[in-house]
């Protein structure tokens, strides 16, 4: 049974929702989290697992730096087996003039924020990763960056929140946010109204629908990201890579998780009801990248219409063409692995904003939003939880979250997405 009232009601039991719930419970508040399916079963457990500071939008860098420290704390407290986190370093190599320019810009930006990154000339790159094939102009290396196991870490944070007193209600979708005289009253589930002094929308692709119910327009596009995992090979590196044609991270068991590179192949844009409502915000990105887009209308449209129904969302189909492309690009990087095979593949639903950074705001009295993470939610999750928890409990976050305000899409204070979407 759901409680009749709590201090804070959180919609979404992914890493953002449960990390915020943990911070609030540690501050002495009574918190209930409502999840339409199972905790952490959607994008939080389907991410690539990168925990990176390099290559971030300037607005995200303070969050990324704090998150990096918090991932270390979580792992020290719960053990490496509970998070899978390790700082193996993340490498971004470049093969063209455009790649070099992007890497140089990322390096200047990172060093300006005090991050320990360094540019590697070709000889240093070959010495660092001798198995890497190809002609490279150089690379950017951030040795303090790393990666974690999304399913493990999401479950660990959810369990820590429950141990701190948080109630997590699975298979319990929130149908609407209730307002009284312009302020939050609580959330409405199948069992009725749960009164709450504050409500946080942390439910990813479902947040826009609930926000619309209280008169707020969130420009969010659903993108499916296909991810694969190879069969095991003899381990030879702890470095993860965000390359031009493929990204990968190694696992201790010799398997590699592979995803899209930073140019050439993007995600699948699924047309949903919100796509039509927010089309004007995404038109510039569509025009820039129309050759790369694959627009689909079908299962995902219906999945979003059923977003407030109980139970897990339908399994999103992965893109077989893109996973084959990524596997071929990975094999080309490491010829010594031969025709290494694919063990499994899956897809996740990413809540993408037009400028590819999240929405974190308090747009109505008592209503908070932490969504639109554009594929960055897993890595930033611990920091977002700390900041949103402080905002809700103490009235202000410790970091400046103003670049993430919802109103930036109507006041014209946004910048184009840095890479092809």
Automatic annotation (TrEMBL):
According to the entry, every stretch annotated as the FAD dependent oxidoreductase domain falls at 7-389
Query: SUPFAM superfamilies from the xrefs?
Result: FAD/NAD(P)-binding domain (SSF51905)
The UniProt entry, under Pfam families, shows: DAO (PF01266)
Q: Does the keyword Oxidoreductase apply?
A: yes
Q: What are the alphabetically sorted keywords of the record?
A: Oxidoreductase
Which top-level group of life is the source organism from?
A: Bacteria
Q: Which PANTHER family match?
A: D-AMINO ACID DEHYDROGENASE (PTHR13847:SF280), SARCOSINE DEHYDROGENASE-RELATED (PTHR13847)
Instruction: Tell me its family.
Output: Belongs to the DadA oxidoreductase family.
- Give the protein's recorded name: FAD-binding oxidoreductase
């Amino acid at each position: 049974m759901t409680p009749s009232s709590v201090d804070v009601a959180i919609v979404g039991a992914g890493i953002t929702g449960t990390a915020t719930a943990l911070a609030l419970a540690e501050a002495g508040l009574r918190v209930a989290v409502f999840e339409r399916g199972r905790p952490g079963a959607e994008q939080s457990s389907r991410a690539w697992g990168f925990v990176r500071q390099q290559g971030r939008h300037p607005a995200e860098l303070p969050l990324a730096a704090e998150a990096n420290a918090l991932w270390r704390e979580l792992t020290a407290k719960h053990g490496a087996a509970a998070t899978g986190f390790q700082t193996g370093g993340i490498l971004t190599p470049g093969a063209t003039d455009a790649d070099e320019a992007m890497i140089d810009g990322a390096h200047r930006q990172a060093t300006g924020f005090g991050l320990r990154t360094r540019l590697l000339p070709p000889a240093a790159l070959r010495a660092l990763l001798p198995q890497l094939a190809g002609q490279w102009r150089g690379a950017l290396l951030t040795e303090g960056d790393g990666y974690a196991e999304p399913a493990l870490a999401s479950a660990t944070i959810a369990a820590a929140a429950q141990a701190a007193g948080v109630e997590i209600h699975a298979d319990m979708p929130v149908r609407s946010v209730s307002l009284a005289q312009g302020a939050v009253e609580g959330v409405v589930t199948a069992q009725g109204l749960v009164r709450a002094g504050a409500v946080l929308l942390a439910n990813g692709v479902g947040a826009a629908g609930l926000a619309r119910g209280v008169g707020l327009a969130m420009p969010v596009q659903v993108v499916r990201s296909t991810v694969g995992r190879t069969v095991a090979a003899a381990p030879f590196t702890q470095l993860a890579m965000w390359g031009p044609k493929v990204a990968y991270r190694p696992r201790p068991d010799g398997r590699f998780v592979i995803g899209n590179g930073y140019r050439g192949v993007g995600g699948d844009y699924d047309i949903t009801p919100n796509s039509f409502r927010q089309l004007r915000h995404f038109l510039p990105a569509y025009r820039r990248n129309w050759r790369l887009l694959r627009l689909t209308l079908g299962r995902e449209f219906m999945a979003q219409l059923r977003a407030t129904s109980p139970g897990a969302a339908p399994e999103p189909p992965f893109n077989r063409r893109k996973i084959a492309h990524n596997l071929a690009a990975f094999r080309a990087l490491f010829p010594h692995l031969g025709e290494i095979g694919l063990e499994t593949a899956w897809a996740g639903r990413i809540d993408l904003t037009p400028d590819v950074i999240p929405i974190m705001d308090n747009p109505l009295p008592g209503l908070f939003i932490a969504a639109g993470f554009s594929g960055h939610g897993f890595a930033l999750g611990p920091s977002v939880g700390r900041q949103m928890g402080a905002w809700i409990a103490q009235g202000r976050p410790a970091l400046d979250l103003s670049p993430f305000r919802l109103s930036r899409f109507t006041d014209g204070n946004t910048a184009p997405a840095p890479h092809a979407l």
